[in-house]
Design brief:
Elements (H helix, E strand, L loop, with lengths): L1 H9 L13 H8 L4 H7 L4 H7 L2 H13 L1 H7 E6 L3 E5 L10 E2 L1 E2 L10 H7 L5 E5 L2 H6 L5 E5 L11 E6 L2 E7 L2 E5 L6 E3 L14 E7 L4 E8 L2 E6 L4 E7 L11 E3 L2 E8 L6 E8 L5 E5 L10 E6 L2 E6 L5 E7 L8 E10 L2 E6 L5 E5 L2 E6 L4 E4 L2 E2 L8 E6 L12
Parallel strand pairs: 3-27
Antiparallel strand pairs: 1-2, 1-28, 2-4, 5-6, 7-8, 8-9, 9-10, 11-12, 12-13, 13-14, 15-16, 16-17, 17-18, 19-20, 20-21, 21-22, 23-24, 24-25, 25-26
Helix pairs in contact: 5-6
């Protein structure tokens, strides 16, 4: 034993290798190149890594690389589908003939909140609903009666989820009536948007929009109602009345975000002074201005604004079948409106994006299709995982680390 001890003392001592400590900016640079799924897993490594994954610096760096790198952009883009539930679809798989499209079901706020109709159906007996007459009605008759109402045998248990807009990985959704959330489908983080104060909350019909104020680094929800424009600021976490809405009360669809503004089709005036325009609300300056509409558009009631490949669009939205729409090839320049005629007809259409092969991905009357703008051919897309029969609405989003809870009041 003594001999072994002496030999150990004579041998060189191996120093423990030190793990190099990389500068913070190098770590952020490396992590910003990784997919969201991996980054979310890294949160479980340690408290330090959890803090790092929640750092707005990493979220901004990751987002910037996603937007500037075509490969990252393609890998991290998703199609969001709403049909009594929320689903996501990989953008990179769209347009490949040899690959089936599979939608993944998402978790989101108020997902399991049962709707009132489903609760009513649950109380039905023998496939029918029996309702007692009121006490006043019973007093008028000598004998109380039961009213039998034939109801559908199958009712979806969940509310419809309205998609009001998407920007930088955050989606504004309404999973229940008059309830708004900012939701990141990639990280599953969400924030309930407070209701507007009762002193200026718009009564009756109102429409919304959602987008990013680049100058002030702020995400804003815009609500139009009662002749006013109301703005919710995520950074302030509060609502404000910012200006009047100087147009007719015939705006029904959510606005679309483009070039730092939210856009709706709108109209004002009477007779010879009647004008149909694209109303553009600047999220930075919080003022509203007119953009020229196509000359053929004579009423905003039947048209909506859209966006395709970074260009503003005007599309038909109701009442009858149409086979055309307009694209503004240079933003703000009315003379650049270009009419596109399609080889299919639609009642309602929403442009989503250009797919990998250059075809336009469109939502047409509750279905997805790819349209080749060069040869006027198209094909409908079958998506596994989405129940058939109810139709759906769709939007797109990017997989990012942007957190709806990462903004604080100044």
């Amino acid at each position: 034993m003594e001999k072994k001890r002496i030999i150990r003392q004579l041998l060189p001592v191996e120093e423990e290798a030190e793990i190099p400590v990389l500068p913070q900016e190098i770590v952020v640079e490396i992590l910003s190149r990784l997919p969201i799924k991996s980054l979310c897993k890294f949160r479980c490594v340690s408290k330090q890594w959890l803090s790092l994954m929640s750092d707005p610096l990493l979220a901004k760096s990751h987002l910037k690389k996603t937007i500037r790198n075509d490969c990252f952009y393609s890998q991290r883009k998703r199609v969001l589908i709403s049909s009594h539930n929320l689903y996501c679809l990989e953008y990179a798989s769209i347009g490949r003939f040899d690959e089936n499209l599979v939608a993944l079901e998402l978790d989101y706020p108020l997902k399991d909140a049962s709707n009132g109709l489903a609760e009513l159906i649950d109380s039905a007996r023998d496939g029918s609903l029996y309702c007692e007459r009121s006490e006043e009605e019973e007093e008028e008759d000598e004998f109380p009666v039961m009213v039998k109402l034939n109801m559908p045998c199958c009712v979806n248990q969940r509310n419809w989820v309205d998609i009001l807009g998407s920007c930088n990985g955050l989606v504004c959704i309404s999973p229940d009536e008059d309830t708004l959330y900012l939701f990141n489908p990639s990280t599953r983080e969400s924030k309930r948007i407070p209701d507007p104060p009762s002193s200026f909350a718009p009564d009756g019909l109102s429409v919304n929009g959602f987008g990013y104020d680049f100058v002030n680094d702020d995400y804003k929800v815009v609500k139009v109602g009662c002749g006013n424009v109301f703005v919710y600021s995520l950074r302030r976490d509060s609502w404000r009345i910012v200006c009047s809405f100087p147009y007719d009360d015939n705006v029904y669809e959510p606005g679309v975000h483009l070039n730092g503004a939210v856009h709706w089709m709108a109209s004002y005036g009477d007779g010879a002074d009647y004008r149909c325009v694209v109303a553009a609300f600047s999220l930075e300056e919080e003022v509203i201005s007119d953009l020229p509409a196509p000359d053929i558009v004579d009423t905003s009631f039947e048209f909506v604004a859209g966006v395709l490949n970074g260009c503003l669009c005007v599309l038909h939205s109701r009442n009858q079948m149409h086979n055309d729409f307009w694209v503004m090839t240079e933003y703000g320049m009315g003379e650049t409106w270009t009419k596109l005629t399609l080889s299919l007809s639609y009642i309602c259409m929403k442009p989503l994006c250009l797919a990998q092969n250059g075809e336009a991905l469109l939502e047409v009357d509750g279905k997805l299709l790819l349209y080749n703008l060069e040869d006027d051919s198209y094909r409908y897309l079958a998506v596994d995982g989405i129940p058939e029969g109810d139709g759906f609405e769709a939007d797109t989003y990017l997989e990012t680390l942007v957190s709806p809870n990462g903004f604080f009041r100044p």
